[in-house]
Every structure is written in C-alpha cells, then in structure tokens.
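User: Here's a protein and a ligand (zinc ion). What would the complex look like?
Assistant: Let me lay out the input and then the predicted complex.
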Amino acid sequence: MTDNVRITVLVENTAESPGLLAEHGLAFWIEIGSQCVLFDTGQGGVLVNNAYRLGVSLNRVDAIVLSHGHYDHTGGLADALRSHQRTTVYAHPDAMKPKFARNQDGSSREIGIPGVCQEALRRSRDRLVLTEKPTTLSNGLVVTGPVPRITDFEDTGGPFFLDAQCQQPDPLWDDQAIFFESKQGTVVLLGCAHSGVINTLRYVRQLTGDRSIHAVLGGMHLVGASAQRLERTIDSLGEMKIDRLGPAHCTGRAATAALWDALPGRCIPCHVGTRVEFDLFTSPTIGASL
Ligand SMILES: [Zn+2]
Ligand SMILES: [Zn+2]
C-alpha cells in the first residue's frame, strides 16, 4: 500500500514567511493517509495563528503525540484540545511530572506542562494513551516510547530536575520520537531528542529491523553539546547516510551550522511553514495497534 504523507512545521524557533510567527518550541502537523496527527504543540503563543495562516484546520486532528513534558512542546495543548475535544493524546506518564531547569545562579525555573494544559489533559484523561513501550497508531505512525540510552557520548543535554531544589535529576524517560515507513526508508520526527539523537535513531533502526533511515526532522538538543559530542554525533549521522536531515529547534545554531557544513546536500530547512512530503510504504507492526 502506498499513500501520501505531508508534514508541515507549525511551530519552530524561526519563521521566514509573512504572517508566520516564531517561538522557542516545536510542533509538526502530519497528514498521513486520511488522518491528521499533531506532534507537539509549541509553547502556545503561535500555534493557532500559524495553523490558520498555513491552512491547517486544527479541528481535523485525530491524535496528538507529546514528545515529552517540557513547556515548549506542550504549551499549545489546551488550544489544540479545544479545537477537537475527542482527540486521543499519546504521552509517556513521566511527561506529567513536575519539571525544572537550574539557572546559572543556582535558582530554578519551572519548565513542565503549563497548568492550563495539565487541566485540559486531565479533562481528556479518558482519551489519554500512556506510551510506556512502542505504540503503533492505526495510520502506521509509531510512537517509540522510552528510548534506551546506549551511546557513551550522549546525555539529556541540560540541568534538568524533577524538583525545584534541583536535587533529583530528571532522566527524561518521557522523551520519545515518532516514525513511519516511506518508500525511500524510515522517516523520523524528533521533539528534543533528550535521549540523544543517535540513541533515538539506533532504537528506531532496532524497531524497524534495521531499515535505512531516509529522513530526520526536529530538535536534536545539541545546543550546549561539547565539541566531542558534536563530532561523534556528526560522524554517526554521516555513517547512517540519511538522505534528508532537518535539524531544528534545540539543535542550536552552532550544531545546525556544523551539520549543514559536514553533510553537504543532505540538510534541509525546517522552520515554520516548511512542508515535506513522503510516500507512505507499509504499516509497521510494532507494539499494540490502536
Ligand atoms: Zn525539552
Ligand atoms: Zn524543546
């Protein structure tokens, strides 16, 4: 079976067309077969505007997948659920935990799901699917669930904690990616890849029986990465021979520039309004079919 998959970037840190707005955050709109999936929701400041400007009807959403519980991916959830109250939401249970980041002066700030969105999620709890393992949606999209951490050069990429006193590190087991099979190979969308982009891609290959990865779009959280981590990440991405790589959001400017430089002809823009199309191949049969 083949079908068309169209991905539209609704929220990202940069926007280049008139009327589109940028914010630190990420959201993808995925039209897959006859269904629509929202992967992340940005901070909530620009989602509705950008959807309107890009001709995306949020009320057509069949499923919302949250990559993890940080505010820059979940802050538009209340708006998205208001558009379609019967939508199924896929998230790991740890996404709902309190989340904090330590500031340079030792104080902390809250970076979890904003209160109004927590409340919207509570109201939709009968439509919440907890992704503690790989989960396949009926349209063929797979939510990875928690990503095994196997590389020795990747960590969650920041001073993330579960308490305001910054005593309990947040391992971010809620971090997950989504993927589907295209005719050209696997297509992976990342939220922040706090598990490590290479850990994530290796896990996807494990889940697909080592099928080659055709495209990767999204946040790679290399914003504060050491030179060594960046080098090893680029080497690993080069070895995977990914045809289309769209580093975005928390990949950071320096790492994005390094990737464009090191992988000529393979990197593609990924900002608000970017549209990419793929031919859907077959539905993988990983995890429970929902
Ligand atoms: Zn994050
Ligand atoms: Zn982020």
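Summary: The longest helix spans residues 227-239.
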